[in-house]
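thoughts on these tokens:
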Amino acid sequence: MITRRAALLGAVGAAAAPILASAAKAESAPDMTAAVASDVAHLPRIKRELVAPPFVHEHEQVAPGGPRVVEFTMDIVEQEMQIADDAWVQAMTFDGSVPGPMMVVHEGDYLELTLRNPPTNMLEHNIDFHAATGALGGGALTKVMPGEQTILRFKATRPGVFVYHCAPGGSMIPWHVVSGMSGAVMILPRDGLKDHDGIPVRYDRLAYIGENDFYVPKDETGAYRRYPDAVSGYADMMDVMNGLIPTHVVFNGAVGSLTGDRALKANVGEKVLIIHAQANRDSRPHLIGGHGDLVWEAGKFNNAPARDFETWFIRGGSAGAALYEFLQPGVYTYVNHNLIEAVNLGATAHFVVEGTWNNDLMEQVQAPTAYGAF
């Protein structure tokens, strides 16, 4: 008898079957028969409602007390998304957004996630937390078919910002990731962030930016193809992916997703913590007209932040953090400073900052006039 699992995997295509079978064997759940159950019954619990990027759910910057179990529920959503004026993808998403929502806890807390794969989906999914220890970051314990759900709990032992992503095995891993299935976790020190001298610092706003590279196939006329579901485009998309040249590099799921009416907001004098995550490729964030006052380039808060960066580096498969106090009003452009990817492929966002201009920091001494007039 053909099982539902076999039927769904078979729909992806015979070409991927050997890879999937090998991956399933290598990435099976570990033997836990001798493990002692974790005792968290005495800990308080708190439920957090996830919100879509670039925003982040309510949280405290300094832990209000001892460790807690912080509960989240997240649905996997397979849906078509428009990523540019002329391009659509059959996206695989955590909670319907690209990137998936950020989850925030404190060091020593337990993050407990209920991961649900609705019966309307076609594919198997899971979640690999780079912040977690063991079992492929939880990926070996969270594989859910359509119509299934699971609960994973892990202890937040390392403060910092970390990527999470789907990793069901073999060629499915890059396909799911570049189809939108990644997000970020922030584990704050219990006493909050500190600067290079160990002095506590706070942020007034948090901007969560997820960078994604897409690989959209074209037809014989050069137009981007559009597919009725994720499975239908698998073979064509793999051909483009294996060329390693993305057709789009975007912030938060689409070209222009953080510009115009959707631009990020701030005021002069406010400190903004920018979290930048990239699950697949290296990136080079740069804030045009501003700087990284404090930069945790590798995203780990046990390390003292660097200061005064113009451009910082996000390794593929990681997240970084930068704190900046805006000192002038106006529109600041935030880019991946591979300017080809920023301008031509879409990796651009805007911060619109309100306040009073400071001529001591910058002044137009003479407006443009006729050549040779002065």
Q: What stands out?
A: Residues 17-26 form the longest helix (10 residues).
